[in-house]
Specification:
The complex is a heterotrimer of chains A (195), B (215) and C (590). Chain A is an alpha/beta fold and 195 residues long. Chain A is built from 7 helices and 6 strands. Chain A has a 4-stranded parallel beta sheet with strand order 3-4-5-6. Chain A has a two-stranded antiparallel ribbon with strand order 1-2. Chain B has helices at 20-23, 26-44, 87-91, 127-131, 157-160, and strands at 2-7, 10-14, 58-60, 70-72, 97-103, 110-118, 137-139, 154-155. In chain B, a hairpin with a 2-residue loop joins strand 1 (2-7) and strand 2 (10-14). The chains are: A alpha/beta (195), B alpha+beta (215), C alpha+beta (590).
């Protein structure tokens, strides 16, 4: 089906009807490593055997991710864009932005984590109740980005485990949303065994 | 707020004193509520006019300059256009490109035996595209990247090289300075060849003008 | 120790550049004559004029610096713009240059003082002259190890407590990290304001830590307050939670590669940073971007300023519980980012400008889309104004909250909307126009009081003034012509020529490998950022990497004054005030 361009009266941003992530015309031609291999795994019967209750629980968890934005820098601004009117992450049950680690289950690390912030990040991660998931957003949080320098942590996996990595500097709000959808997918498949 | 001019080029924003009704809280609160109500009604009866882009059902069309994931273009015979000159890795501020050069046995030409981009390090500045003298690296409009493990984020030739008939549709940041080239095909600038005009929408199919099969 | 690999900056291995001529600024004779006048007025024996600089420049003996600063302050140089170090390790007679830059709003001129100091020597602290120099001196100590005698609190400011060595010294390995453990985190105890010291109330005194991960501190600031009941009687702040080492990274990258780093200083208005940095290098090279590029720069700068103010106002109101404005304001902001994306392919951090112009031309529908935005924006600004400006709940929370007097603001070195909210009409765009701002009809808004409300009023009015500039710019239309200079030593040749001509290909290779090589010397250039005067001071030694890049971050002195502003207030007031200062951590911690 050819994509339809959608005209919008109040916006200069062009948009078109899309298809599910990972299936667009762009996606058919370029794939990321891991995507194809996972499809092969699925065809072979999946990797985990889950009971019906687990499926239910995972479905509920995946659809009610309450994010804790550990936003330090530029990516936090894009995170704000994602929760605001143009993208509206509320459609996926993830609009309840909680700044208290006790009330959140998805930590979105948005922005550079420097060495001075390391202990703080660790402490806040420890305070989150299970089940907890971590999304590393953007070049700095995932790997330090182009700050290979004396005061910047080279990826937050130096201190906390990470479930999903979103590249980009910063990732666009829809790119981040793709990451959240992929994490949701992973949780619903039961690939992340926590809690 | 009232504005008075106090000097040429300088205006002063004065605080206006509140009137009695303003000081009673409620009238202004109701006025504010009316504004919200106006927005609500406007949106309620004009769902199409909402600013929201309902990703993933509706996708934003980024411009033709969008700096997304990279690809390596190929010549018509299927070899990569890249000649491993290390320009892109030199220009890269993040030093996320690793190249190892090899030499083609037949043509005695340099080619990349290994070409890795660490997507997590990459800051998508487009400097690699600007630096390439061979039209070999482009950026696409693909922003849907989310990776399970850090090791998988290092993409190599297998993930970067595209077939020679790769359409122009998903292309983003391409090498141009000065006058913007509207058309073109991703297999190269096609120097000395007519450049095909193709609108974005129906360009996801291989291009028969360019695709030469298995010749 | 960390898992970081050894830093892999590419050392300069090519042939020695032939272009090692000294930098000669424009109208240097005037500057020197003006410098002589100032020297005659100060008449201090320790003052030695340095000729051939881009602003009146003097070298001062280190023991006389306090006297010289005092007499300069008394003769009108009331704003302390900057204080930083430069390291020349192989120089005899004092390894470090400590550079002071002052600005006089009355005479509209800048002055630069340099103090030479050796590794084991110290400089008398000038905190008594300008309050703003407190943090700057701490930063110079942190980065270079220069000691300031008599400084009340000379400890590290940007790097963490367990850091060893001084990072901006030339012999410091850029990749040398030091691990901070939780035990190493310093305990902060704010000094209690003398006003409240002897006040005896029934309440117990509590010391409360806000941040660095606190919703009100926007992630990267740490504020420690001592409370007496509800009143803050003492406050201290800690920054450096986003110290990304911009200045060290600039020294290890080429001039072009620094542009993406400047994006990430004030990420809410990234294009203004790009423009400021590129214009500094253009000033050193003695070139000027083509008219079309300047026009695009101006228009996008103004759009970015609006977007910066939108973030400030929107998030500040969220902090005060008014969420609706956030939705209303972020909608046009998203459209502004859409315009930026259509120009250069990235939304927030565009990396659009290059030294000598722009990366690509603006798209064909640029002016039409800009016009749509300019038509759209006033509606949203009006809505926000109607929602809050007569709402007494809002007014009670902002009027008289976190005030700062004009005198203090000047002494701290405020610039931008925060200074204009105290009634000083200083705007770089008016005072020393660039990009042709002098040809537009617009006004600098000021307000009285210096409180949170005044900052609101100034920011709202500034958005309207930016719209005025934009409307005029759209009416004039984009001038025809190229968007980047035709100079193969500065700008990459057009791609068509690179593919076709040998000479262009060689220039292309040479520019990528050897970079831009400005003449040897130093230059300072300033633009009006979202938060105030954003200046870049660049020292070139003629190679492809800058010898030193110093950014003058407008947030830095503003946040320095924050403890003083919140003392005597309550915590909700402090949070309302913090939002209105628009502290951008990337810029604050550079």
């Amino acid at each position: 089906m050819p994509a339809q361009k959608i005209e919008h009266p109040d916006s200069i941003i062009p948009r078109k009807a899309g298809v599910a992530p990972g299936e667009g015309p762009e996606k058919g031609l370029i794939t990321l490593p891991g995507e194809t291999s996972r499809e092969a795994e699925d065809l072979a019967g999946g990797t985990y055997l889950t009971t019906k209750l687990d499926t239910m629980v995972n479905w509920a968890r995946g659809n009610s991710l309450w994010p804790l934005p550990f936003g330090t820098a530029c990516c936090a601004i894009e995170f704000m864009s994602m929760v605001s009117s143009h993208y509206d992450v509320a459609r996926f049950g993830a609009e309840v932005v909680r700044f208290s680690p006790r009330q959140a289950d998805l930590m979105i690390v948005a922005g550079t984590i420097v060495d001075k912030m390391g202990p703080v990040l660790k402490k806040i991660y420890d305070q989150m109740p299970e089940p907890k998931y971590v999304l590393a957003m953007g070049a700095c949080a995932t790997s330090g980005g182009f700050y290979r320098v004396y005061h910047v942590m080279q990826g937050i996996d130096e201190v906390i485990p990470v479930d999903i990595w979103v590249p980009g500097c910063p990732p666009t709000p829809d790119g981040l949303m793709y990451g959240i959808l992929k994490l949701k997918d992973k949780i619903e498949r039961g690939e992340i065994k926590r809690g | 707020m009232a504005i008075t001019r106090i000097a040429p080029g300088v205006v002063k924003v004065e605080r206006t004193p509140l009137s009695l009704s303003d000081r009673l809280y409620l009238p202004q609160v109701i006025k504010g509520m009316l504004i919200t109500l106006r927005h609500l009604l406007k949106n309620l009866f004009n769902i199409k006019g909402l600013p929201i882009i309902s990703y993933p059902e509706v996708k934003r069309v980024y411009s033709e300059r969008f700096r997304g994931r990279h690809i390596l273009t190929t010549r018509e015979d299927g070899t990569t256009r890249c000649v491993a000159c290390f320009m892109c890795s030199t220009a890269c501020p993040a030093e996320c490109i690793t190249i190892e050069a090899g030499e083609d046995e037949r043509t005695r030409e340099k080619f990349p035996a290994r070409y890795d981009i660490d997507l997590l390090r990459c800051i998508f500045c487009g400097y690699c595209v600007d630096a390439c003298p061979e039209d070999a690296i482009y950026m696409t409009r693909d922003y849907e990247m989310a990776i399970d493990t850090r090791a998988r984020a290092v993409v190599g030739l297998r993930d970067l090289v595209v077939p020679p008939n790769f359409p122009v549709g998903p292309m983003g940041w391409r090498p141009y300075y000065g006058e913007m080239k509207k058309q073109g095909w991703a297999g190269g600038t096609g120097l000395g060849q007519p450049i095909r005009t193709a609108p974005f929408e129906d360009d996801s199919k291989p291009n028969p003008d360019v695709y030469r099969g298995d010749q | 120790m960390s898992t970081l690999t050894k830093f892999s900056a590419i050392p300069y291995t090519g042939p020695a550049p032939t272009n090692r001529e000294p930098y000669v600024p424009a109208n240097v004779a005037q500057t020197d004559a003006r410098g002589e006048e100032i020297a005659a007025k100060i008449s201090n024996n320790a003052l030695q004029q340095e000729r051939g600089q881009d602003m009146p420049s003097f070298s001062v003996d280190r023991n006389a610096i306090v006297d010289v600063l005092t007499s300069l302050r008394n003769s009108g140089f009331t704003i302390p713009l900057d204080l930083f170090g430069v390291d020349y390790p192989r120089r005899s007679g004092g390894r470090f240059d400590v550079v002071y830059q002052l600005y006089s709003p009355q005479a509209n001129e800048r002055v630069r003082l340099k103090v030479r100091v050796a590794e084991d020597e110290s400089i008398p602290s000038s905190v008594g002259v300008f309050k703003g120099y407190d943090w700057y001196e701490r930063e110079t100590f942190d980065m270079f190890g220069v000691k300031f005698e008599g400084h009340p609190n000379l400890r590290r400011i940007l790097c963490h407590e367990m850091f060893q060595g001084h990072a901006l010294r030339k012999d410091y390995d850029p990749a040398q990290r030091w691990l901070l453990t939780e035990q190493g985190v310093a305990k902060l105890l704010p000094k209690i304001d003398p006003k409240f010291e002897n006040v005896d109330t029934d309440f117990e005194r509590v010391t409360l830590n806000l941040g660095p991960s606190h919703p009100a501190t926007h992630g990267t600031l740490r504020i420690v307050v001592t409370l007496d009941g509800e009143t803050i009687i003492g406050a201290d702040t800690e920054i450096g939670y986003l110290h990304r080492c911009f200045e060290k990274m600039a020294e290890t990258h080429t001039y072009q590669q620094v542009i993406p780093f400047t994006d990430r200083l004030n990420y809410c208005s990234a294009i203004i940073n790009n423009v400021g940095y590129c214009m500094t290098i253009e000033k050193m090279l003695g070139i000027e971007a083509p008219a079309r590029a300047q026009h695009i720069r101006l228009m996008l700068s103004e759009f970015m300023r609006i977007s910066d103010h939108i973030i400030c106002i929107g998030t500040n109101l969220v902090d005060m519980g008014a969420l609706t404005n956030f939705w209303y304001l972020f909608q046009p902001r998203e459209e502004i980012l859409g315009l930026v994306e259509s120009c250069c392919g990235a939304r927030l951090l565009p990396t659009y400008t290059r030294v000598g112009g722009m990366a690509v031309d603006a798209p064909a529908d640029f002016l039409a889309n800009s016009q749509r935005l300019v038509n759209m924006l006033p509606k949203f600004i009006d809505d926000v104004e109607k929602l809050i400006m007569k709402n007494r709940i809002f007014l009670d929370r902002v009027i008289g909250v976190c005030p700062i007097s004009q005198e203090d603001a000047l002494s701290y070195g405020f610039t931008g909307p925060c200074l204009r909210a105290t009634g000083v009409p200083y705007d770089v765009r008016k005072a020393s126009p660039y990009l042709g701002y002098e040809t537009y009809d617009w006004d600098v808004p000021i307000a009285d009081g210096g409180d949170t409300y005044a900052r609101f009023l100034v920011r709202l009015e500034e958005m309207r003034q930016s719209l005025r500039i934009l409307q005029q710019a759209i009416d004039r239309g984009l001038p025809p012509g190229p968007v980047i200079v035709d100079n193969p030593y500065v700008a990459l040749p057009p791609k068509e020529r690179v593919y076709n001509e040998m000479e262009s290909l060689i220039y292309h290779f040479k520019l990528i490998m050897h970079g831009i090589q400005p003449p040897v010397g130093e230059a300072y250039f300033q633009v009006e950022g979202g938060n105030g005067e954003l200046g870049f001071y660049v020292v070139s030694d003629g190679t492809k990497n800058p010898y030193r890049v110093r950014v003058r971050p407008p947030c830095f002195p503003i946040f320095e004054a924050y403890p003083q502003m919140i003392t005597g207030q309550t915590i909700p007031d402090a949070i309302a005030g913090l939002g209105s200062l628009n502290i951008i951590a990337g810029e604050l911690d550079h």
